[in-house]
Amino acid sequence: MSPAPADPPDPEVLAAFERDSFVILRDVISPDWREQAAEAATRLLASRRTAGRDRSVDGKDGFRGIVAMDDTFLPLVADPKVLPTVVALLGSTNLYLMSSNLIYMPSIPPGAPRSIRIPSRHGWHRDMVAATRDLGIATVPRLSIKAAYFLSDITPDAGLTMFVPGSHTDTGPVTLAPGAIDPPGAITPDLGPLDVVLFENRTWHAGGLNTSGRPRLAVMMQYGYRWLAPIDDLAPGLLDRDDLTDVERQLLGRPDRNPDGSIAHEGAEAWPLREWWQHLTQAQPRF
Ligand SMILES: O=C(O)CCC(=O)C(=O)O
Predict the structure, then answer these.
(1) Domains in the chain and their CATH numbers?
(2) What distance in angstroms lies between residue 161's CA and the mean position of ligand 1's atoms?
(3) Which of 64, 112, 135, 141 has the most CB atoms at less than 10 Å from its CB?
(4) pLDDT per residue as tens digits for the range 69-119
(5) How much is the pLDDT for 282?
């Protein structure tokens, strides 16, 4: 199978990301897919499944590794409207999908007791906390890009992910005024239902406060270098499927192995994305 046609990354999108620490890509998903994905998400959440489940306080729920749980999510793996920007921002084709994360955030009525999004537990963070701890907050590099899709109604009170613009180059922790739950300058992106927002591991972000009266459903696809450890459980069954492209199989974690199972050189199995990128950009491979 060939990968879906794609356009080279838009330099203005890349510049906006470098300035703001996040960028919105417009009209990426279709209304039909969005509806199907919301149904698939609701089915998963209603199930008793515990493998990969990620429950938290105040009714937060979700799953890690959803691309292996329902085929509805597979088209996101190598979404042709997203992948070129991800490759350009990470500056490499030696990439894979570290995580596909469904996040269910219940609505909490204004004034109702809650244990998140309070001053002592405001929720602002950078991703890949272990990398930051090991390498230092000022020096940790860009390691991953998250693409966040929202499957439920988007209203100002829906609790979309919030960002501190420009924060990927900050060299210290985020600071909040006493009693505040958001740092100065924090914004909620102006997203439409078919849009996706990209951000990186160093972007300071937090789930907003959902007071909409409806649950908020989000899917976060996290791409990173193939030498980083996966966050989700491995899904070897997906790698053998013949209805996926080689690019998808790379992104789903095909290891550097020869067909006979022997060890191939490091990066060998990143050829699908490398060839795809060369074709897309006509660029000589740097990687
Ligand atoms: O649920 C959200 O909006 C934020 C999720 C988040 O912080 C994360 O994926 O790191």
Answers:
(1) 11-281 (2.60.120.620)
(2) 6
(3) 64
(4) 999 999 999 999 999 999 999 999 999 999 999 999 999 988 888 998 999
(5) 84
Name residues contacting ligand 1 (CB within 6 A).
103, 105, 127, 161, 205, 207, 218, 220
Question: What residues form DSSP beta bridges with 205?
Answer: 125, 163
Task: Using most ligand atoms within 8 A of CB, pick from 151, 200, 220, 222 the residue to mutate for ligand 1.
Answer: 220
C-alpha–C-alpha distance, residues 123 and 176, integer Å: 11
148 pairs with which residues across the strands?
197, 220
Count the Cβ atoms, other than its own, within 10 Å of residue 159. 26
Pocket test for ligand 1, best of 127, 129, 196, 205 (most atoms within 8 A of CB): 205
Query: For 11-26, what is each residue's pLDDT tens digit?
Result: 999 999 999 999 999 9
Average pLDDT, the chain: 95
Q: Whose CA is nearest to atom 2 of ligand 1?
A: 207
Ligand 1 atom closest to 220 (CA): 9
3: tokens are 């990968």
Computed on alpha carbons and rounded to an integer, the radius of gyration of the chain in Å comes to 19
Question: Which amino acid makes up residue 2?
Answer: S
Reported pTM:
0.96
> Looking at ligand 1, which atom is closest to the CA of residue 105?
1
Residues 6+ apart with CB under 8 A from 47: none
Q: Given phi > 0 = left and psi -120 to 50 = alpha, else beta, which region is 50?
A: alpha
Query: pLDDT for 125-152, tens place per residue?
Result: 999 999 999 999 999 999 999 999 999 9
